[in-house]
């Protein structure tokens, strides 16, 4: 480790996490086997909050109306540093870890196919290591750890920001899994608005008196046709995609109710709002054509993600101090075999830190941490707990998530996260630089939440699906609890 004026504190947190590698892995593996969908992360949130509470954090559960959301705090005074991440899985992606071919743990069940289980392990473990450094070395400041449900549906953090949970925060750090160890600054993700469009009509027998009906499914189909025509006129970076949530009950009864769930994306918050407004007009036109009524319910609305240059520099320094894990021959062979099975470039696991990149190129995916990133300076720790090039939201994205690759990458990510926190607590000039570069980055933009002021979280989202699979999935739960020493 390179010498600096915080070498003692850094050595302490790095050694702490090496010593507690089993506990780090236990958190990640436990959440992997919970495999809980967004808004239903009951066991995942319980494990994290109890672990943080056992380590001396004060925990507030159910924040902003999210039963599986939380804020855990430690320390006092300034600076206030927020750590935040997600821990939800995806439907129909139950994959046995360590297998290089598609194999369900629970047939057709939900599962982690990106690595949010590792995100949670890094956040909780890094926070505990930083807490221990605060206590041992008398560091001044407050650590706040936010659990963010339902990231795959882009839900929780805009509510947290809207409701004031980040009002006293000076800087924030998000961690996220990948195939690389690195960080960036600049605009990284797009804004999005996600909404249900429910058409209401009137039933009739489809064969004997269809003329009596007002077909709600016709409204959904006509909206789809209208959106297809609108796509020709969308700007290249804009996106619109959907699933039909309710298309009726049986073909001989014309449905009186049908629902389609659309997500609209654009590089800016205003752009996403514009696409959404056009979607609303198309829905209203579809309702007129089908002689139905349409009800529109916003599910989520997020700003684009931007990461801060000042924090990126702090994080990059710690990534370089930590270094990429030493991969074994077997781990490299597994990675290449998985890459071949997924039909992607079979390069194996990467062995070098990515250089600091910025300003980076904005991409079309979204993340609900975007709202945090316009409220306060935000950095991101990227850690290598998954295999490079494998697609997320695909069985191959889940194949490494409870292996030694995931375990080693999570320890490395937690070290970089804890090291960055130590730096920010120890050196006020780093926080000042983050705030200065943040002011330059956002310029004249004034943040205002896209979600309606009085909107409440969709707490029942995914409940029925999770209840269907929870019992068979519970047979695979890990009984061991994480213990740090």
Overview of this protein structure:
Helix 1 runs antiparallel to helix 11, helix 2 runs antiparallel to helix 4 and helix 2 packs across helix 11 (404-426). This protein is globular. It is α/β, with parallel strands linked by helices. The chain is built from 13 helices and 12 strands. It has a 6-stranded mixed beta sheet. It starts with 6 loop residues before the first helix and ends in an 11-residue tail after the last helix.
Keywords:
485 residues, alpha/beta, Aminopeptidase, Alpha-Beta Plaits, 2 domains, 4-stranded antiparallel beta sheet, 12 strands, globular
Q: Summary?
A:
By secondary structure, this protein is α/β, with parallel strands linked by helices. Helix content is 39%, strand content 17%.
Global structural class: alpha/beta
Q: For the largest sheet, list the strands in their spatial order.
A: 1-2-4-3-5-12
**Which CATH architecture of the largest domain is right?**
3-Layer(aba) Sandwich
Count of helical stretches: 13
Overall CATH class of the largest domain: Alpha Beta
Per-chain topology:
Elements: H1 7-19, H2 21-34, H3 42-54, E1 58-61, E2 70-76, E3 80-86, H4 116-137, E4 141-148, H5 156-162, E5 171-177, E6 186-187, E7 191-200, H6 216-231, E8 239-246, E9 257-266, H7 269-290, E10 293-302, E11 306-307, H8 309-322, H9 329-341, H10 370-375, E12 378-383, H11 404-426, H12 428-442, H13 463-474
Parallel strand pairs: 3-4, 3-5, 5-12
Antiparallel strand pairs: 1-2, 2-4, 6-11, 7-9, 7-10, 8-9
């Amino acid at each position: 480790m390179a010498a600096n004026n915080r070498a003692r504190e850094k050595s302490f947190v790095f050694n702490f996490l090496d010593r507690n590698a089993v506990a780090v892995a236990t958190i990640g593996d436990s959440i992997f086997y919970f495999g809980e969908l967004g808004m239903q992360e009951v066991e995942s949130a319980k494990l994290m909050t109890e672990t943080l509470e056992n380590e001396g954090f004060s925990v507030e559960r159910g924040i902003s109306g999210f039963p599986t959301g939380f804020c855990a705090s430690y320390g006092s005074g300034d600076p206030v540093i927020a750590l935040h991440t997600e821990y939800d899985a995806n439907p129909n992606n139950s994959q046995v870890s360590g297998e290089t071919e598609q194999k369900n743990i629970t047939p057709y069940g939900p599962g982690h196919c990106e690595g949010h289980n590792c995100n949670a392990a890094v956040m909780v473990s890094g926070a505990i290591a930083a807490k221990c450094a605060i206590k041992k070395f008398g560091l001044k400041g407050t650590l706040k750890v936010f659990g963010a449900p339902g990231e795959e549906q882009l839900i929780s953090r805009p509510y947290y920001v809207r409701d004031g949970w980040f009002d006293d925060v000076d800087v924030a750090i998000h961690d996220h899994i990948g195939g690389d160890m690195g960080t960036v600054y600049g605009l990284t993700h797009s804004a999005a608005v996600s909404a249900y469009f429910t058409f209401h009509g009137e039933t009739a027998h489809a064969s004997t008196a269809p003329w009596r009906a007002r077909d709600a499914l016709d409204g959904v189909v006509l909206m789809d046709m209208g959106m297809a025509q609108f796509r020709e006129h969308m700007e290249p970076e804009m996106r619109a995609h959907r699933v039909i949530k309710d298309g009726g009950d049986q073909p001989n009864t014309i449905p009186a109710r049908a629902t389609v769930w659309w997500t609209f994306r654009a590089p800016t918050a205003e752009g996403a709002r514009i696409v959404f407004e056009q979607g609303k007009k198309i829905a209203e036109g579809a309702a007129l054509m089908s002689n139905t009524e349409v009800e529109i319910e916003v599910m989520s609305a997020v700003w684009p993600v931007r990461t801060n240059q000042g924090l990126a520099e702090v994080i990059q320094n710690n990534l370089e101090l930590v270094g990429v894990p030493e991969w074994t021959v077997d781990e490299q062979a597994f990675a290449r075999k998985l890459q071949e099975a997924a039909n992607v470039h079979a390069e194996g696991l990467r062995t070098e830190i990515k250089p600091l990149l910025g300003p980076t190129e904005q991409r079309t995916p979204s993340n609900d941490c975007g709202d945090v990133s316009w409220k306060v300076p935000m950095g991101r720790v990227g850690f290598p707990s998954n295999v490079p090039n494998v697609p997320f939201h695909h069985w191959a994205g889940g194949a490494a998530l409870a292996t030694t690759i995931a375990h080693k990458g999570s320890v490395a990510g937690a070290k970089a996260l804890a090291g960055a926190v130590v730096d920010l607590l120890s050196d006020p000039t780093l926080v000042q630089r983050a705030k200065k570069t943040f002011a330059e980055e956002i310029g004249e933009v004034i943040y205002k939440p896209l979600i309606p002021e009085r909107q409440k979280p969709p707490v029942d989202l995914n409940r029925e699906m999770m209840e269907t699979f929870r019992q068979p999935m519970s047979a695979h739960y890990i009984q061991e609890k994480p213990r740090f020493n």
